[in-house]
Amino acid sequence: MRIALVAEDYYPQLGGVPEHVHNLARQLLAWGHYVTIVTSHMDGAGPDPAFVRRIGTSRVIYANGGVSRITTGWGLQRQLEECFRAGRYDVVHVHGGLAPTFGILAPWAAFRAGIPVVATFHSWFETSPSYRVLRAPAQRLLDRHAATIAVSQPVVDVMSRYFRADWQVIPNGVDVSFFQPNGRRPTDALTQGPRLLFLGRIEPRNGLGTLLRAMPAILASFPRARLFVAGDGPWRRFYEWRARRLGESVRFVGQVLAERPEYYGSADLYLCPTRIASFGVTLLEAMACGTPMIVADNAGYRWLVGDGREAVLLPKDQPTAWAATVIELLADPARRRRMSRAGLIKAIRFAWPVVARQELTVYERVAR
Questions:
Q1: pLDDT digits (tens, 9 = 90+) for 225-244
Q2: 333-349 and 281-288 helices, crossing angle to 10°
Q3: Residue 351 and residue 359: Cα distance in Å, rounded?
Q4: Are 309 and 200 in contact (CB under 8 A)?
Q5: In this structure, how many other beta carbons lie within 10 angstroms of the beta carbon of residue 343?
Q6: pTM of the model
Q7: Which of 73, 76, 97 shows the shortest CA–CA distance to 17?
Q8: How do residues 330-350 score in pLDDT, each as one tens digit?
Q9: What gap in Å lies between CA 42 and CA 238, rounded to an integer?
């Protein structure tokens, strides 16, 4: 098949959507399909793979408690239509349905080119004033989609407040050949000093402040504990300033990509206090590396790790509870070993060949 994957967010920006789109493209290409990722020009983007096409210019905005992006430029819909016609695609798959800019312009461009549109919805939110106001025209656009996908049931639930659609849940995936355990043993936390990991975009909704407030209590029980902060963002300097009083116990290592398995695998606990999430890609990555987790009790994480075997769910902003749970788990290598095994088992269910096969089934149906 000939498939166009359209994404407002793509590398060098990190996040769930870029990871989903990139790995889906790689898996489909490995199966012999013709795939193009259509995205926008971004600052810091290096040389792209041959299957990436950039249209327009990406602009950073603040939305839903964090950094988001929209694409600007003259004649974007015309350029998208020309791209789709030239590629003779069987299906256009838009990631970020109904979201400006590509989530709206790309479907119209595909309709004009006579190509069926699949949209995946990746976001969860408390409420949406814009959807409430623009419900009627957005519903008419959604009605013309050939298929609508959500990455989790919580996304279906929130979107169903505003729109009617035949929703199908197809989750994010994880590359289990890339994310693997690296040999760190549960007892190493006690013999070599505990290693804690925060990995994500440094912005308020991802909850790094909760961990910084929890660290003094953790250090009182485990003075050799170290929190590694892997990520970057416009709030990094602010959080570095807040962490100064903690000295060498908190280390900001910057943005990581290829090194992610090393950081997950060498951590005794992955800490993810994100306040808002639709799914939890980093949780899958940590599971595939066999890393036990403490995560915030939000809608997306609760759906992914509801049984609690591979992770402990905690209130989003209670540093006392986070500190107490970190201390409890660090002192219990046997429990962390059980959590690690449970995570490895669950990660296999989300391996990319499994997820991509579900996506391909949708493409084949709508193309017919």
A1: 999 999 998 899 999 999 99
A2: 110
A3: 13
A4: no
A5: 25
A6: 0.94
A7: 97
A8: 999 999 999 999 999 999 999
A9: 24
